[in-house]
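Consider the tokenized backbone below.
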């Protein structure tokens, strides 16, 4: 037994029970499947009706740990039953015969096809079961699938390993059997089709058998090409590459005519692709790999008629992928498209009436910049527009200068990037603002300027800060179609309400809402006090700064800071400080 330190963590109950409990979970989720008493065998619940129709019984299986293969392919349009061995271990003959008996439902003389991945243990155990099934009166054949393209040479006694391409054979066999094709026809078809297929794998990390440690070791900057699904060594260990380079390395090796296991791929060929997750790869990475594999083949003039992308045959939690290429014709496309209810099969979404898959082009839509309109909005005279230019410039320069200070403040309540996020937005605004003689933003139209700032902050800054500022400027724009003293305070108020409505913060919650609310209330009150606009703005800026500093005394009730221990929040909120400072910088100019 491996030491406690070396044993990998897994969500199981007991090591010895994990295969059985995996099967129990599969049938509990998919009640169209049943589990055989005393054996780790999955069978279609409608097997009796299926067999009575004289259709070919399809049996497969192998070691557990490759889920959803093979048990996930049992069902209508797929396998009739499946025998599950221990993790990475072939099921014994008795288990395989139980799969035959469960599928045939005591009917004599069934047509039985066993689909077997090319590993010595699988060939031997399924071979024994095949012979015993014949003794029981069943017409039984076996198709062995070995499509690994990694090896430079093939040992004639072992041959090529069976990999995820076997799941394509399951799918095609299921379609043929469901259509009523006889055993001889299906065997002939599958033996032909399997020779038109190749697979290669790539690993970024090892897997670990329950109760044990990692099956092999890869350094953090390494990946392994051509490994087997049980963690067997590959053909090359190399430094981590980009997705594009990794796919090219895999496909170049797979199609290298100098190796005895290669698959021929040339311009004009039609293929189907299977992009398989070996267990621990994110969907994000898998989609990138799929894109690169399609591009690789299409750039070589190959028609990629179908792409299947997802979890088809895993190696426990191994981070990695395999790519399968299958040469297709119209018949094979029909078999792959044939309806199936098996839980593991994931067909691509095709447009209505689409027969041959094509990589779609981009859809053109109206850009946000094109949708901005200043129709009916007030325009400023050149002198006022020049002041607005300087105010925006000054506010952005202040944020850039405060980047480190704001990041330092953010380390106590966030992830230390508040200053960097705001600086990114400010630098983008400055770049678009251009020069005073030729402004790149509509400084002569406050309404359109606010909408422009909403787009920049929302698109460039990202995260909560970008969204909050985008909401503020979008709300403020509604009030700036009219340019007067009251419209400025109204703009602050409407922007403030937008932030509170969608962000959930209120005054006193220790956020940017506090200084913004203080500035708004100050401007509203100054409108009735007889203060000049300059005096009103100066007072509002002072009120905002005081409110920002006061956040140091508040309990955080919104944002990331609300999850931080109160005793650690001893400094002002960085978002509040930032707003007060850029507001003061802008109003000093105005």
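A designed sequence for it:
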């Amino acid at each position: 037994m491996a030491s406690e330190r070396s044993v990998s963590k897994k969500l199981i109950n007991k090591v010895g029970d994990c295969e059985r409990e995996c099967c129990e979970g599969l049938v509990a989720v998919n009640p169209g499947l049943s589990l055989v008493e005393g054996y780790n065998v999955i069978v279609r619940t409608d097997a009796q009706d299926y067999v009575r129709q004289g259709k070919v019984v399809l049996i497969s299986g192998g070691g557990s740990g490759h889920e959803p293969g093979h048990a996930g392919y049992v069902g209508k349009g797929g396998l009739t039953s499946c025998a599950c061995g221990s993790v990475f271990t072939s099921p014994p003959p008795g288990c395989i015969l139980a799969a035959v008996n469960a599928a045939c439902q005591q009917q004599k003389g069934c047509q039985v096809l066993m689909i077997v991945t090319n590993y010595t243990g699988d060939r031997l155990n399924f071979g024994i079961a095949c012979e015993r099934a014949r003794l029981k009166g069943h017409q039984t054949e076996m198709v062995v699938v070995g499509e690994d393209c990694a090896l430079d040479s093939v040992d004639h006694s072992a041959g090529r390993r069976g990999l995820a391409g076997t799941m394509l054979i399951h799918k095609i066999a299921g379609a043929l059997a469901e259509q009523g094709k006889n055993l001889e026809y299906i065997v002939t078809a599958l033996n032909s089709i399997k020779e038109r297929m190749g697979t290669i794998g790539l690993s970024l990390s090892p897997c670990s058998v329950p109760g044990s440690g990692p099956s092999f070791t890869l350094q953090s900057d390494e990946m392994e090409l051509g490994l087997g699904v049980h963690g067997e060594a590959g053909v090359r260990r190399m430094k981590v590459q980009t997705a594009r380079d990794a796919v090219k390395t895999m496909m170049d090796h797979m199609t290298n005519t100098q190796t005895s296991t290669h698959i021929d791929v040339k311009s004009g060929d039609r293929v189907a692709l299977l992009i398989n997750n070996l267990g621990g790869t994110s969907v994000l990475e898998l989609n990138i790999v799929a894109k690169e594999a399609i591009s690789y083949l299409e750039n070589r003039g190959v028609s990629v008629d179908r792409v299947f992308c997802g979890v088809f045959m895993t190696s426990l939690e191994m981070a990695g992928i395999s790519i399968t290429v299958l040469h297709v014709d119209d018949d094979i496309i029909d078999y792959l498209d044939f309806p199936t209810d098996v839980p593991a099969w994931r067909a691509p979404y095709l447009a209505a009436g689409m027969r041959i898959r094509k990589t779609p082009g981009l859809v053109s839509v109206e850009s946000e910049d094109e949708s901005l309109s200043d129709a009916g909005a007030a325009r400023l005279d050149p002198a006022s527009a020049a002041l607005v230019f300087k105010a925006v410039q000054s506010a952005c320069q202040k944020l850039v200068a405060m980047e480190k200070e704001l990041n330092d403040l953010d380390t106590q309540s966030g992830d230390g990037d508040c200053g960097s996020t705001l600086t990114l937005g400010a630098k983008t605004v400055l770049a678009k603002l251009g020069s005073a003689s030729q402004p790149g933003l509509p400084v002569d139209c406050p309404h359109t300027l606010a909408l422009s700032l909403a787009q920049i902050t929302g698109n460039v800054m990202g995260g909560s800060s970008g969204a909050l500022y985008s909401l503020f400027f979008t709300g403020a724009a509604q009030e700036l179609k009219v340019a007067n003293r009251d419209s400025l305070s109204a703009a602050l108020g409407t922007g403030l309400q937008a932030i509170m409505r969608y962000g959930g913060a209120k005054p006193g919650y220790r956020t940017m809402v506090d200084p913004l609310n203080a500035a708004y209330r100050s401007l509203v009150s100054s409108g009735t006090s007889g203060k000049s606009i300059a005096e009103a703005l100066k007072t509002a800026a002072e009120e905002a700064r005081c409110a920002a500093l006061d956040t140091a005394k508040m309990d955080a009730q919104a944002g990331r800071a609300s999850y931080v221990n109160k005793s650690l929040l001893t400094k002002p909120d960085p978002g509040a400080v930032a707003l007060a400072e850029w507001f003061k910088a802008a109003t000093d100019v105005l």
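The first strand starts at residue 33 and ends at 35.
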